[in-house]
Automatic annotation (TrEMBL), chain A:
This is Fumarate reductase subunit C. InterPro entries: Fumarate_red_C, SQR/QFR_C/D. Gene3D superfamilies: Fumarate reductase/succinate dehydrogenase, transmembrane subunit (1.20.1300.10). Pfam families: Fumarate_red_C. It comes from Nonomuraea helvata.
From TrEMBL, chain B:
Residues 14-103 form the 2Fe-2S ferredoxin-type domain. GO terms for molecular function: succinate dehydrogenase (quinone) activity. Binds 1 [4Fe-4S] cluster. The gene is sdhB. InterPro entries: 2Fe-2S_ferredoxin-like_sf, 2Fe-2S_ferredoxin-type, 2Fe2S_fd_BS, 4Fe4S_Fe-S-bd, 4Fe4S_Fe_S_CS, Beta-grasp_dom_sf, Helical_ferredxn, SDH/FRD_Iron-Sulfur. NCBIfam families: dhsB, PRK05950.1. Residues 147-176 form the 4Fe-4S ferredoxin-type domain. Pathway: Carbohydrate metabolism; tricarboxylic acid cycle. Its cofactor is [4Fe-4S] cluster; [2Fe-2S] cluster; [3Fe-4S] cluster. Belongs to the succinate dehydrogenase/fumarate reductase iron-sulfur protein family. This is Fumarate reductase iron-sulfur subunit. The keyword 4Fe-4S applies. Keywords: 2Fe-2S, 3Fe-4S, 4Fe-4S, Iron, Iron-sulfur, Metal-binding, Oxidoreductase, Tricarboxylic acid cycle. It is an enzyme of class 1 (oxidoreductase). It comes from Nonomuraea helvata.
Length: 127, 248
């Protein structure tokens, strides 16, 4: 349309509302999720090649611990928000009755806790 | 009673974006003082300006009751229906009124929505029937459950607040956008519809363009939840790509 004013692109859109800022923060946590996978693969590789001692030394360095504490916090935030958003994509109807979001979220979180406890049990039990 | 009278004599400052094509290179703000009435919506303030202070102000409105969807504007940075947003929400003021973000501005607070209308019609937002001769004479009864499956999406009034709030749309005007996808889902989930909107929705600029910021749902005045409509179709499209026989 001639004469219409087209506003310039807003490159600071993520700073305009609290919700958008939180959204970007959540997206950034994906970097730490990726790092957690890399770290896990490094661990698997150390087990495979028998270099667990070196891996243990590296993992015990203060800066590595700091990164991993941050990664744990970011991964937990990512997981909680991901599980909470799941009912948006999966609308479940049972005989016409729509299963409320809190039930789906509750199921997700329960499954997460059970799986985590199982994994912790196998890893932490004494040999 | 005294309090009501007192409120009626108070005024609140409205800073209204003006853009006069051919005169202004970009919008400028113009301030007006309007009576701070407890039952006045922002739209009443604008109507007061137009009737009493400056007849040249341009904006859209019609129903004054949250039904027509034409009075959407940016009020203090938030996309709002101005007929449902009260002056008293803003304390002492001032209140900044701007056109909806993300759309070309035709004049003052009036935006160009042709792009949206073209996108909307590309989703065929009507009941598509196949293999039937006109005129249709059959009744298509629905159970309350079948109605419930899509009713929420049918509440959309095309106010475009969701587009204005969506950063994906504001950065990429080609994005099909929340309301068009929610309305496509309104028909996809209707038991009487036989259409297939997969080719329009399963696109990078359509459902896959959505990064799930969720602002559309937050600002929607009719609780349509377009973010849900989009995520649901992502799942449908993904399933359909791996299981060709699954349709909706
Ligand atoms: S989905 Fe909601 S915000 Fe978007 S156009 Fe429809 S009613 Fe307005
Ligand atoms: S004037 Fe109709 S929705 Fe506000």
């Amino acid at each position: 349309m001639t004469g219409a004013y087209r506003p310039p692109r807003d490159n600071l859109w993520f700073a305009r509302t609290r919700h958008c800022a939180f959204f970007v923060l959540r997206e950034l946590t994906s970097v730490f999720v990726a790092w957690t996978i890399v770290f896990l693969l490094m661990f698997v590789d150390a087990v495979r090649t028998g270099s667990l001692q070196e891996f243990g030394a590296l993992a015990g360095r203060p800066w590595m611990i700091a990164i991993n504490v941050l990664a744990l916090a970011a991964t937990v935030l990512h997981t909680i928000t991901f599980l909470n958003l799941a009912p948006k994509a999966t609308v479940v109807r049972l005989d016409g009755w729509r299963v409320p979001a809190w039930m789906i979220q509750g199921g997700n979180h329960s499954a997460w806790v059970v799986l985590s406890v199982l994994i912790a049990y196998f890893i932490l039990r004494s040999p | 009673m005294t309090e009501t009278k007192e409120t009626a004599t108070r005024t609140i400052r409205m800073e209204v974006a003006r853009y006069r094509p051919g005169e202004d290179d970009e919008p400028v703000f113009q301030g007006y003082d309007v009576p701070l009435m407890p039952d006045w919506a922002v739209l009443d303030g604008l109507n007061h300006i137009k009737d009493q202070l400056d007849g040249s102000l341009s904006y859209r409105w019609s129903c004054r009751m949250g039904v027509c969807g034409s009075c959407g504007m940016t009020v203090n940075g938030e996309p709002r229906l101005t007929c449902g947003t009260f002056l008293t929400e803003y304390g002492e003021g001032p209140i900044r009124i701007e056109p909806l973000k993300g759309f070309p501005v035709i004049r003052d607070l009036v935006v160009d929505i042709d792009g949206f209308l073209a996108k909307l019609s590309s989703t065929r937002p009507w009941l598509v029937r196949e293999g039937e001769e006109l005129p249709l004479t059959t009744e298509y009864a629905q159970t309350p459950e079948q109605l419930d499956a899509y009713k929420q999406y049918s509440m959309c009034i095309n106010c475009l607040l969701c587009y204005s709030a969506c950063p994906v749309y504001v950065l990429d005007p080609d994005f099909l956008g929340p309301a068009a996808i929610a309305l496509a889902q309104r028909y996809n989930l209707d038991s009487r519809d036989m259409g297939d909107r997969f080719d329009v929705l399963n696109q990078e600029d359509a459902v896959w363009g959505c990064t799930f910021v969720g602002e559309c749902t937050r600002v929607c005045p009719k609780h349509v939840d377009p973010a849900e409509a989009i995520q649901r179709y992502k799942l449908t499209a993904a399933l359909r790509s791996v299981l060709p026989w699954s349709r909706r």
